[in-house]
Amino acid sequence: MKKLIYAIIVLILFGFAIGYYLFNKPHKDYSIAQIELSISAHDIFKAYNEDELRANQLYQDKVIAVSGIVSGIDLNQKKATIIYLESDDPLFGIQFTMLPSDSSQYLKLKKGDKTTLKGLCVGFTNDVVFTNATVVVKD
Length: 139
Prior knowledge:
The protein is an alpha/beta fold. Helix content is 32%, strand content 37%. It is built from four helices and six strands. The protein has a five-stranded mixed β-barrel. The longest helix is centred in the N-terminal third of the chain and has 23 residues. It is elongated, with a radius of gyration of 20 Å. It starts with a helix and ends with a strand. The relative contact order is 0.18.
């Protein structure tokens, strides 16, 4: 019985150690991440709209620079800035959740500006969704 109690205690301690390691693991700094490819907002939206599975193979989990025209700027529930780029679809487009560290750049953007944003592509939910985004170019 004592061996069972010791084994359970060891497993619990091991679980805490793994949790502590994962919690404190350094996160990738996407503001300095290398751009893996560049594409226009219209082209990436078209790729996802035509064949989501193939587009995921090409773009998902990659740092991509996307060029287009700002169609809107908003805040999400966590008060993070969301910037939308136009696509050929009147209702949906490209959605970038911006990094707070880049606020000096994205706060200068307004609807109608031509820009290039980079971020981590996470998939498609009517909009092509990017996280950890920063401004590459404000034209």
